[in-house]
Design a protein that fits this description.
- By secondary structure, the chain is α/β, with parallel strands linked by helices.
- Helices cover 39% and strands 18% of the residues.
- The chain is built from ten helices and eight strands.
- The structure holds the ligand O=C(O)CCC(=O)CC(=O)O.
- The site of the ligand O=C(O)CCC(=O)CC(=O)O has 9 residues, from helix 4.
- InterPro entries: AB_hydrolase_1, AB_hydrolase_fold, AB_hydrolase_sf, PcaD/CatD.
Length: 265
């Protein structure tokens, strides 16, 4: 576990895997989670790639900064982590809001991006009314009353059983995120529209959907894939919004297959 201060915001990150000589993949977590959502996927890629994961601001052990945020704030943090590590031309894998951050990084620092994996995300997620309602609710009541609804979008019914300790652990993960980090990131999602950016992406791009995703359903992810020239689209079965947790083997396999076909650097 390592820390770096980017523009006075402390960001927690990890570097794992094969080391500098291999291609680098940077993973961006979703709303209400931290970098541990990648824990089951990283070991499946670690022999062949250098793997960077981090807690975006307002989540995990990273600083809160000054919410509400813009997606560009999150993307500047990500650029800061990559610059700090001395990498360029990396593969960016972002889940949900992480996919918005990935598109923003591509728009602002294309020099850092070799390929994009846009997972369970879109060019635009939800409506301003939906996000304003969610922000008002979480700021008034905290995350507790929202857990069941959120989990119903994140995980399939088969996963959401009390006997599943992992399911209960992910409820804990959500509940332990700072409310201001959660609501601040909701504001960033509300204000983000990457439609024009998506149409102009010129690096290899894979769009991943979860068959039962209640947050960014397959048809929404498909609409992103339709915008990105030459992109690939893949649906992971038996998974919802966070397939890296529910279907890590399938998730790692589709990433591997995509990266095997990348042109050489
Ligand atoms: O997961 C995200 O990063 C944002 C999408 C969302 O609304 C997640 C949820 O359903 O709570």
């Amino acid at each position: 576990m390592q820390f770096v201060s980017i523009n006075d915001v402390v960001i927690r990150y990890d570097v794992a895997g094969a080391g500098d000589r291999k291609p680098v993949i940077v993973f961006i977590n979703s709303l209400g989670t931290d970098a541990r959502i990648w824990d089951l996927v990283l070991p499946k890629l670690s022999e062949d790639f250098t793997l960077v994961s981090y807690d975006k601001r307002g989540h995990g052990l990273s600083d809160l900064g000054k919410p509400p945020y813009r997606i560009e704030d999150h993307a500047a943090d990500l650029a800061g982590v990559i610059d700090h590590l001395g990498y360029a031309n990396v593969i960016i894998c972002g889940l949900s809001v992480g996919g918005l951050i990935a598109q923003s990084l591509y728009a602002t620092r294309p020099d850092l991006v070799r390929a994009l994996i846009l997972s369970n995300t879109a060019h635009k997620i939800g409506t301003a009314d939906m996000w304003n309602e969610r922000i008002a609710k979480v700021e008034a009541e905290g995350l507790g009353p929202m857990v069941d609804g959120i989990m119903g979008r994140w995980f399939t019914a088969a996963h959401r059983v009390p006997e599943n300790a992992a399911y209960r652990g992910y409820c804990n993960m959500l509940l332990r995120q700072p409310v201001a980090g959660y609501s601040g990131t909701c504001a960033a999602i509300r204000d983000a529209d990457f439609t024009e950016v998506a149409k102009n992406i010129a690096v290899p791009t894979l769009c991943i959907a979860g068959a039962e995703d209640g947050s960014t359903p397959p048809e929404l992810v498909r609409s992103l894939a339709d915008l990105v020239p030459g992109s690939r689209y893949h649906v992971i079965e038996n998974a919802a919004h966070i397939p890296c947790v529910e279907a890590p083997a399938a998730y790692a396999a589709v990433i591997r297959e995509f990266l095997a076909q990348l042109p050489g650097e």
